Amino acid sequence: MPLREHLVEIRKRLFLAAIGIVLGAVVGWIVYEPVLQALQQPLVDAAERRNVLTGLNFEGVATAIDMKVKVSLFLGVLLSSPWWLYQLFAFITPGLTSKEKRYAFGFIGAAVPLFLAGVALAWVMLPRAVALLNEFVPDGSANLINAQMYLGFVMRLMLAFGIAFLVPVIMVALNTMGVVRAATWLAGWRWAVLISFLFAAIMTPTPDVLTMFCVALPICALYFLAYGISVLHDRRVDQRDAARLAL
């Protein structure tokens, strides 16, 4: 495909992905109030537990509307994730064979639930993180949190977990394309486990070891699951190549 057609195609896919995000953001705008209440619930629970005034502080005249727009766009990204992931793979598929296209759609089917599972795990971790951080507020003080900073903290937490859960899909994709063999993933398993626990330690502000293990172990399990799938793929490729040589 010539360069000009590539540019036209990527512009088309980006436009379609943006349309999906905008439509998801419209839904996010509609459900903003219950979502904001859910986001604030960990703060309310922490305030009741400590009997400390805790809540979001909307500084500035336009902060409230700015936060509503950002939350709506963030929800749009989450809700439309199947659509923009499909557009990403649709941009790649014209250069693939029919068999490789089946693999691509399989990757979409795995990437969407894994991304959403990572986001869900971050959502489960959020109340524990807020409760721990609120423990450091001195008695008799108020903890009025900047709404923009709190929103940024939640968004980074969820996106980081969502992307972390996409790593196995990337591993299998690289193996399927013949870039990395399963033996390479096995050779790097110690680094993978170390990085998983470092990620869990950094992204979970709670000090207990149990929480860190609850975050790190699923990531490690997904790594070894991706390694197992890569082993099966390499065996099929090796058997096919051996059969061709025998002919």
Task: Note down, in words, how this protein is organized.
There is one protein chain. The chain has 247 residues and is mainly alpha-helical. It has one domain (3-246). It is built from ten helices and two strands. The protein has helices at 3-30, 32-50, 63-79, 81-92, 98-134, 147-164, 167-176, 182-187, 189-203, 209-246; strands at residues 53-57, 142-146. The protein has a two-stranded parallel ribbon with strand order 1-2. The longest helix is centred in the last third of the chain and has 38 residues, at 209-246. It is flat, with a radius of gyration of 22 Å. The model has no long low-confidence stretch (mean pLDDT 82). The chain crosses the membrane at residues 14-32, 71-92, 104-126, 153-174, 186-203, 209-232.
Spell out the helices and strands N to C: HHEHHHEHHHHH
Q: Please report the distance between the alpha carbons of the first and last residues.
A: 34 Å
Any idea what the shape is? flat
Poorly predicted residue ranges? none
The strand order across the widest sheet is 1-2
* pLDDT averaged over residues: 82
Radius of gyration: 22 Å
| Main pleated sheet | 2 strands, parallel
Number of helices: 10
Number of domains: 1
Number of strands: 2
What portion of residues belong to β-strands? under 5%
Family: Belongs to the TatC family.
Membrane topology: Multi-pass membrane protein
Subcellular location: Cell membrane; Membrane
GO molecular function: proton motive force dependent protein transmembrane transporter activity
